[in-house]
From TrEMBL:
Lineage, top ranks: Bacteria, Pseudomonadati, Pseudomonadota, Alphaproteobacteria, Hyphomicrobiales
Coiled-coil region(s): none
Classification via InterPro entries: AMP-bd_C, AMP-bd_C_sf, AMP-binding_CS, AMP-dep_synth/lig_dom, ANL_N_sf
Protein name: Long-chain fatty acid--CoA ligase
Keywords: Ligase
Naturally occurring in which organism (per UniProt): Candidatus Afipia apatlaquensis
C-alpha cells in the first residue's frame, strides 16, 4: 500500500487534494452554520496569506495561533503553510502561564487570536493589548505586536525537512516541548484514510477534537484529504452531537474514550435511541481503550468502535485497529503501512514475540525534533532514526500491538510490574463508574497504587463496593491501596485525563493507606 508517493509538498496542498474532481463540494460547515466549499476555502487561504504577509509574516517565522476550532483558525493554519511559516497552534483554554511559556519558547513573529469564537482567546488577547485586524474572508482577528527580534528559521524545499506545525505537549512546569512536525509527516498521515478507503468523499464528521492537538489536527486533515465534509464545533455539545447522529447527518463519529463514556452514560440515563443512523464507524484514540467501553459504544451506536494509537511526536498515528463488529478485541492494531517498529527490553534488545517491551518507531511520521532542544531530541530518537515512544506494548500472533501502559506510569508494587490500564479497565466495568485513572505513589521501599474514579452522573460510588468488586478480578499485588472518588476527573483541553495532576494530588493530599 503506497502512502508516500504524490504527497502534497505543503499541507495547504491537502485542500487541493480534497477538491479534486469537484471543488464545489462542502469542506466545512463553520461555527456559524455557514457552508464552505473546497474552492472557497482554498481561495480564502490564499487571500489570508497575502494579509499575513502584509502584517510582516515571512517564510521561516513562527506564527502562534491561540484558538478554539473555527474557520478562522483553520484558514490561518493553511495560510501559514502557503507562506512557509511555522504554525504554532495552541489551545485558547490553556492558562496564561502555559501560553506565556510557549510564546517564550518559540519566539513567534506575531500571535493571532480567534477572539470572535473564543472568549478565552479574547481574554488572552486583551491581556496582550492585541489589535483588531480584518482578514479578508474570515473577518476580525486580534493580532499581537510584530516582534522585530524574532529570527526566521531556514526554509527547506524538501517537505520532509520543512516544519509545518509546532505542537506543544501539555505540562505546566519547566520548559515546554515544541514538537516540530514536517509537511511530509502530516501529509503522510493525512492521506491514509483516503488511500486505505477508510474515509470517503461522502463522509461527514464533526471537527470537535481541538486542532491544536495532533489527534484533532490529523482527524481534520484526513477528512480534508479525502474531500469529505466537517462540521466545526468549537466546544463539544452533547445535545448537538446526538442530534447530528440521530438526524443521520454524521457518517463517522470521533471522540476520546472519556468523552465516549459520557455519551454512553447520557444515552442510557435518558433512555435515548441512537439507532438507526448513518454512521459507518466510531473512532477513538489518545488513551487506552477497555473492553467494557468498546462493548457499550457498539451497543449504543450500532457500529464498530475503532481505535487509533500514536503520539504527538509521530504526527500522531502509529497504528490503527482492524476490528470486526463485536469481536471484543482491545488491541491497538498493526502499525500503519510505511511505519517500522521494534519492541525492546531494558537491555535495548528486541524481546521474544508476545513479550512486553518498550516500543520504538521509525518512519515518515516521526517528528523532526523538539524546537530548540537538540539534546532532548537526541534522548528520544536514536542514530538509526527510531523514536522511543515510552510505551510498553506486546504483539499478538496476528501482528496487532497490545498496549500495556506507559513506562513512566509503570508502578512497581512489591517487585511486580503493574500497568495502570489493566486496573482501569476493570474499574470501568463497574456500573457506577464513568471513568477511572490509576497512578503510583512512592512510599518507603515500595509503591502504592492509587485509583481515582468518577461516578456515573446521578450515581454514587462506595469505595468499599469497589474493593469488593475487584476481588477475584485482579491479582493481589495489582489491587489499589486507596480508591479516591472525584465528582469529575481533571481533563486537559484535548479531552485526556490529566494524570500528572492526579499523581501530584496523590503525593500531596491523599492520606496514606
Amino acid at each position: 500500500m503506497d502512502l508516500l508517493s504524490n504527497l502534497p509538498a505543503r499541507i495547504h496542498g491537502i485542500l487541493d487534494a480534497g477538491a479534486e474532481g469537484d471543488a464545489s463540494r462542502i469542506a466545512f460547515t463553520d461555527e456559524h452554520d455557514v457552508d464552505w466549499s473546497y474552492r472557497r476555502l482554498i481561495d480564502t487561504v490564499e487571500l489570508a496569506a497575502t494579509e499575513m504577509s502584509r502584517l510582516g509574516i515571512r517564510p521561516g517565522d513562527r506564527v502562534m495561533i491561540v484558538c478554539e476550532n473555527s474557520i478562522a483558525a483553520i484558514v490561518l493554519l493553511y495560510a501559514s503553510s502557503r507562506l512557509d511559516a511555522w504554525a504554532v497552534v495552541t489551545n485558547a483554554r490553556l492558562s496564561q502561564h502555559e501560553l506565556e511559556l510557549i510564546e517564550r519558547d518559540c519566539h513567534p513573529r506575531r500571535v493571532f487570536y480567534t477572539h470572535v469564537v473564543s472568549p478565552d482567546a479574547d481574554a488572552h488577547a486583551c491581556r496582550k493589548n492585541a489589535d483588531i485586524e480584518a482578514i479578508t474572508g474570515i473577518g476580525e482577528i486580534k493580532v499581537g505586536n510584530l516582534e522585530e527580534l524574532s529570527v526566521a528559521e531556514k526554509v527547506h524545499r524538501d517537505a520532509s525537512q520543512q516544519v509545518a506545525v509546532v505542537i506543544y505537549t501539555t505540562g505546566t512546569t519547566g520548559r515546554p516541548k515544541g514538537v516540530m512536525l514536517s509537511h511530509r509527516s502530516l501529509a503522510f498521515v493525512a492521506c491514509r484514510g483516503r488511500r486505505t478507503d477508510t474515509i470517503h468523499s461522502s463522509d461527514v464528521s464533526l471537527c470537535v477534537m481541538p486542532i491544536s492537538h495532533s489527534y484533532g489536527l490529523t482527524l481534520m486533515q484526513g477528512m480534508l484529504f479525502a474531500g469529505a465534509h466537517l462540521k466545526i464545533m468549537p466546544r463539544f455539545s452533547l445535545a448537538h452531537a446526538i442530534e447530528a447522529i440521530v438526524n443521520k447527518t454524521l457518517t463517522i463519529f470521533t471522540a476520546v474514550p472519556a468523552l465516549l463514556s459520557r455519551v454512553v452514560a447520557h444515552v442510557d440515563q435518558e433512555g435515548l435511541q441512537l439507532k438507526p443512523n448513518r454512521l459507518r464507524y466510531v473512532y477513538t484514540g489518545t488513551a487506552p481503550l477497555d473492553l467494557a467501553l468498546r462493548q457499550n459504544v457498539e451497543r449504543v451506536f450500532g457500529v464498530v468502535l475503532h481505535n487509533g494509537y500514536g503520539l504527538t511526536e509521530t504526527s500522531p498515528t502509529i497504528s490503527r485497529t482492524r476490528y470486526a463488529m463485536g469481536s471484543n478485541e482491545v488491541n491497538i492494531g498493526p502499525p500503519i503501512p510505511g511505519v517500522e517498529i521494534k519492541i525492546v527490553g531494558t537491555d535495548g534488545r528486541e524481546v521474544k514475540e508476545g513479550s512486553p517491551g518498550e516500543l520504538l518507531v521509525r518512519g515518515p511520521n516521526v517528528m523532526l525534533g523538539y524546537y530548540g532542544q537538540p539534546e532532548l531530541t537526541a534522548g528520544v530518537i536514536d542514530e538509526q532514526g527510531y523514536l522511543n515512544t515510552g510505551d510498553i506494548v506486546s504483539r499478538n500472533p496476528a501482528g496487532d500491538l497490545i498496549m500495556q501502559g506507559r513506562s513512566k506510569e509503570l508502578i512497581i508494587r512489591s517487585g511486580f510490574n503493574v500497568y495502570p490500564p489493566e486496573i482501569e479497565a476493570v474499574l470501568n466495568t463497574h456500573p457506577t463508574v464513568l471513568n477511572s485513572a490509576v497512578v503510583g505513589r512512592s512510599v518507603e521501599g515500595n509503591e502504592e497504587i492509587i485509583a481515582f474514579v468518577e461516578p456515573v452522573p446521578g450515581s454514587s460510588v462506595e469505595t468499599s463496593d469497589l474493593f469488593t468488586f475487584l476481588e477475584g478480578q485482579l491479582a493481589r499485588y495489582k489491587k489499589p491501596q486507596k480508591i479516591v472518588v472525584m465528582q469529575q476527573l481533571p481533563i486537559a483541553p484535548n479531552g485526556k485525563i490529566r494524570k500528572h495532576d492526579l499523581k501530584k494530588y496523590a503525593e500531596t493530599t491523599v492520606p496514606s493507606a
